[in-house]
């Protein structure tokens, strides 16, 4: 028995060490890979006389729950609160509280002002004061988002359209939440594009909490979410000029969903018909405004539909270092077509996927679904989309998610997969240990 025990203990130690190493690695990945993107967030809350005290308490609960889901800290998310009615009061500055507990405590102490509804004045104050560096906002940077969430239940007594436009032009992303008898047109005048993502309505303050998850998701991103995205757009004559304009709007709808910056998402655009025309390479534009302007300027080629030739260009050129692609960064290709290809697509489509590109295929009208499936990555059900009508393309833009993160908004897909591998490895090690224990027990019996 003496020689067997040390061997058994050694094996136990090795297995335990491996398990602990795997778990430590998983924990390190959990701590390091996924985090909320740095954001300066200001809530602008209506406490006019139409908001009853009990309803204002529900607004504060909503704010507290959104804050609870954020990664609050000096280098992560900073939160401010502006309270308004006929006048504006800066309740919480971006520089004041650096912890969730302090923030939530401050929110619970806010009292309603109970006068008129000067929403334009509140937006002006937020832009000039709440988002100033003196109040704790960070210097304008592509890596720090500026976000305002406006909660209101009435029609403003001043103009909001022009001041909201100036705030958006200053780089502030505006979400508008309307409650009860709110004027929906006012919400649309305030909110950023796309309006479907930035305007919300609830029937009463009692159900405003249902929006909590949406806003927790809005401020979450992976720290490793750098992505190179190239659009490959069919400009053949069958598309027609008026539909080509809809395609450009669709591209910009997707760009709105990307975290475009020097260090995050880069976007390139290639148009094809009988020939291939690179419109702009990856990395030329590193903000949404310039990108969207470049898309709007794209001229319609017309002529044929050489999708295979376009795919070969994508494989050989679009994701090359010479065209601005970054090494080690996720590569995503989005192919749009409205008809059957006039050349063979199989080889180039296969090569794109073999190269590790994540390929989406979007078809409209006379597009062939078998071709779309051939282009799309696995699982094809998540990577190809078809609609008969160009006007329905906006629905595809909503479904098409080019994210590294899935499920829990702050949980990276890569981390989930890694943790599953760790669990599987531990289960395998446990089985090996059980088998080894049985074999050692048999050996012990033989020795005895």
In short:
The protein has 16 helices and 14 strands. With 448 residues, the protein is of the alpha/beta class.
Question: Overview of this structure, please?
Answer:
The chain is of the alpha/beta class and 448 residues long. It has 16 helices and 14 strands. It is 43% helix and 19% strand. The strands form 3 sheets. Strands 4-3-2-5-6-7 form a 6-stranded mixed beta sheet, sandwiched between helices. The longest helix has 35 residues, at 413-447. Mean pLDDT is 82; it is low at 1-34, 404-410 and 412-418.
State the total count of DSSP E strands: 14
Task: Report the sheet-strand fraction.
Answer: 15-25%
DSSP helical segment count: 16
Portion of residues in helices? 40-55%
Shape: globular
Main β-sheet, spatial strand arrangement? 4-3-2-5-6-7
CA-atom Rg in angstroms: 27 Å
Low-confidence stretches: 1-34, 404-410, 412-418
Overall pLDDT level: 82
Distance between the termini: 8 Å
How does the helix and strand content classify structurally?
alpha/beta
Q: Major beta sheet, specifics? A: 6 strands, mixed
Order of helices and strands: HEEHEEHHEHEHHEHEEHEEHHEHEHHEHH
Topology at a glance:
Layout: H1 4-32, E1 34-36, E2 39-46, H2 53-68, E3 77-84, E4 88-92, H3 100-108, H4 119-130, E5 145-152, H5 161-169, E6 172-179, H6 184-190, H7 195-198, E7 199-202, H8 212-218, E8 220-222, E9 227-234, H9 241-257, E10 265-272, E11 276-280, H10 288-296, H11 307-318, E12 330-337, H12 346-354, E13 358-364, H13 369-375, H14 380-383, E14 384-387, H15 393-399, H16 413-447
Parallel strand pairs: 2-3, 2-5, 5-6, 6-7, 9-10, 9-12, 12-13, 13-14
Antiparallel strand pairs: 1-8, 3-4, 10-11
